[in-house]
Amino acid sequence: MLYQQKSTRLNEADWEKPWYVVDASGQVLGRMATRIARTLMGKDNPRYTPNVDSGAYVVVINADKVVLTGDKMNKKVYRRFSRYPGHMKEIYAREMHEKKPEKIVELAVKRMLPKNRLGRKMFKKLKVYASPEHPHQAQNPREMEL
After folding, report:
1. Burial of 125 (0-12, 13-18, 19+ CB in 10 A)
2. Which string of DSSP letters, residue by residue, matches the chain?
3. What's the whole-model pTM score?
4. Degrees (nearest 5) of the Cα angle 118, 25, 113?
5. How far apart are CA 53 and CA 71, in angstroms?
6. Bridging pattern class, strands 57-61 and 126-128
7. Would you call 140 exposed, middle or buried from its count of C-beta atoms within 10 A (0-12, 13-18, 19+)?
8. Which among 2, 79, 101, 117 is least surrounded, fewest beta carbons within 10 Å?
9. Class level of CATH domain 18-67+100-143
């Protein structure tokens, strides 16, 4: 008698969500952000389930030391629009880096996550800090290889 192999779908209670720390000093923004996004989604786990938040928590430190290649510091533009006529705000990467260096990393990762309810839930597991200190020592985060 032949037995059919069964595939199992896991629910969120079955997942253990580890904590990782990423040191952004000297890292290229895009390459680092793709690795972080994959970890937040859980795609680096062999038990990945697309409809479940199966990713880990990621803490990024030293976000003020992240590197943008080429002349992106002077040419990359971040835009936001309030939906009122004439209210498009533009800020260059250099200005954003000086004012809010965490925001550059957050936006790079957020735009790589799914644009739905699950993606917003995944994004909440990202913690970004401009300095090397962070308040998540109690979770015993491990170093993440990039």
Report:
1. middle
2. -----------GGG----EEEEE-TT-BHHHHHHHHHHHHHTTTSTT--TTS----EEEEE-GGG-B--TTHHHH-EEEEE-SSTT-EEEEEHHHHHHH-HHHHHHHHHHTTS-SSHHHHHHHTTEEE-SSS--S-GGG-PEEPP-
3. 0.90
4. 15
5. 36
6. parallel
7. exposed
8. 2
9. alpha beta
Quick: pLDDT tens for 5-18: 777 777 777 778 89
Condensed to tens digits (0 to 9), the pLDDT of residues 51-77 reads 888 899 999 999 999 999 999 999 999
Q: How confident is the model at residue 108 (pLDDT cuts 50, 70, 90)?
A: very high
**Domain ranges across the chain:** 18-67+100-143
